[in-house]
UniProtKB/TrEMBL annotation:
This is FAD-dependent monooxygenase. GO terms for molecular function: monooxygenase activity. The lineage of its organism: Bacteria, Bacillati, Actinomycetota, Actinomycetes, Micrococcales. Residues 3-164 form the FAD-binding domain. PANTHER family: OXIDOREDUCTASE-RELATED. Keywords: Monooxygenase, Oxidoreductase. InterPro entries: FAD-bd (IPR002938), FAD/NAD-bd_sf (IPR036188), FAD_aromatic-hydroxylase (IPR051704). It comes from Arthrobacter ginkgonis. Residues 266-286 are annotated as: Disordered.
Length: 417
């Protein structure tokens, strides 16, 4: 049996690995020539943590884990504000939690792929087709890849979804937030953080900053924005987006200062008129951060015939949930394991239906919570700002931290295989 996976993000790599380990022939097409430099953190607990353990990557991922020991507000004049020890919050998961850069998780998953998997980077299909006899992807060089199953793991702006499941307007729900994740080598700043994660916020904007043991500082710059955006695509150049965050706190200004030195930063965003064909996504630059929309994807079905969607393409829960990477990992691995049990193409639709029946409840809870709480991710009024400071203080109370973790992150278990 043969699978073609579109997209080498967390979900695609997890599915490809599980399929190949189950004896399938697997090919992955990835639009980007290299993994992006600027990606956020992957928080793994519940189903995501369980999946990592089942794949055997827990020790390697734990070695790269860097959860800040404390989350703390920094005021614009540099004074420390309220905060809480993260162990109290994550204590809700009984120690089964880790947080590592999403790029590092992707690297671990890619390195763990069986050697039989073919991964082609800088290669986005120009045309996709599927019928009862199989699936086909036509490539820019005129080649064609045929497979028994086509797995769409191509993220929020999925071309596979648009081709087989309908337009974005019918399934992508914009949450009115834009985020740009950045990662910069900044050992001085990391030393200043001393293992803490910092939050800096103003009305309409918030930044979360943490340091990694290898000297990188990671920042998530989040803005409230009512503007419509194309999912998964930058709607402004990253430089202009990030400029609006100046002055929130000295630590985040230091990070912005280091970023401004990057020549990639003020590249213009891709104008709409040059948007690629809906079934193809040209290779994106790996070096510049992107400001992207937070969105939830809700589809009545994730599979049709021999085509199936996973990860953000199928059921994005947005970064607001802190579960997106974990659900992409666990969902990809779960789909791969379900398909790998099939022995003939006729069994594929049944396996896909079973995958969906068992996996959908795991995603439903986080999606519901995100739709309910997304508006709280960024303060919009002075009262919201004060509320957030109060929340940071209250989270230092042990029982409240655990209860909040359960309430905010919801029921987080899911089937592993
Ligand atoms: C700015 C930002 C911040 C985030 N912060 C967090 C966080 O703090 N915690 C958390 O858990 N999650 C976070 N996430 C989410 C998390 O990174 C993603 O949800 C998770 O990586 C989803 O994985 P995926 O494999 O489904 O999709 P993606 O990671 O989007 O991977 C899709 C892949 O498909 C490729 N692709 C797209 N189109 C094509 C095509 N036509 N042909 C070939 N390849 C294609 C893309 O280049 C990409 O490599 C964040 C996401 C973003 C964008």
């Amino acid at each position: 049996m043969r699978a073609l996976v579109i997209g080498a993000g967390i979900a695609g790599l997890a599915a490809a690995g599980a399929l190949a380990r189950g004896g399938w022939e697997v090919e992955i097409l990835e639009a980007r020539t290299q993994r992006p430099e600027h990606q956020g953190m992957a928080d793994l607990f519940g189903a995501g943590y369980d999946a990592l353990e089942a794949i055997g990557l827990l020790p390697a991922a734990s070695a790269r884990s860097s959860t800040p020991f404390r989350i703390e507000l920094q005021h614009p004049d540099g004074r420390p504000g309220p905060g809480y020890p993260t162990a109290r919050f994550y204590g809700a998961f009984g120690g089964r939690h880790l947080s590592l850069p999403a790029a590092d998780l992707e690297a671990l998953l890619e390195d763990a792929l069986p050697p039989t998997v073919r991964l082609r980077r800088g290669c986005a299909p120009e045309r996709l087709e599927a019928d009862d006899g199989g699936t086909a992807a036509w490539l820019p060089d005129g080649g064609c890849v045929r497979a028994d199953v086509l797995v769409g793991a191509d993220g929020l702006g999925s071309a596979v979804r648009r081709t087989f499941f309908g337009p974005d307007a019918e399934c992508v729900r914009d949450l009115g937030l834009r985020v740009a994740d950045v990662s910069v080598h900044a050992p001085g700043l990391v030393q200043e953080l001393r293992g803490r994660g910092l939050v800096a916020d103003g009305i309409g904007r918030t930044v979360q900053l943490c340091g990694l043991p290898d000297g990188r500082a990671m920042g998530a710059f989040i803005e409230h924005s009512a503007a419509a955006a194309r999912p998964g695509r930058p709607d402004t150049d990253a430089g202009t987006f990030l400029d609006a965050f100046t002055g929130l706190a000295p630590a985040t200004d230091s990070l912005l200062g280091l970023l401004q030195k990057s020549p990639a930063l003020h590249q213009p965003a891709v104008p709409d008129s040059t948007a690629p064909d809906p079934t193809a996504l040209g290779p994106a630059s790996a070096g510049e951060p992107e400001a992207v929309a937070a969105a939830v994807v809700e589809l009545p079905r994730w599979s049709t015939g021999r085509v199936v969607l996973i990860g953000d393409a199928a059921c994005a829960v947005s970064f607001v949930s802190s579960q997106e990477a974990g659900l992409a990992l666990a969902g990809g691995a779960f789909l791969g394991a379900a398909l790998a049990r099939t022995r003939a193409p006729e069994q594929v639709p049944g396996a896909l239906a079973e995958f969906e029946r068992r996996w959908r409840p795991t995603v439903r809870g986080p999606q519901r919570l995100v739709k309910r709480y997304a508006h709280k991710a960024v303060p919009r009024t002075r009262m919201n700002l004060l509320d957030r400071r109060f929340a940071l203080r209250v989270l230092s109370v042990p029982g409240i931290a655990r209860a909040s973790a359960r309430q905010l992150l919801g029921p987080i278990r899911g089937p592993v295989n």
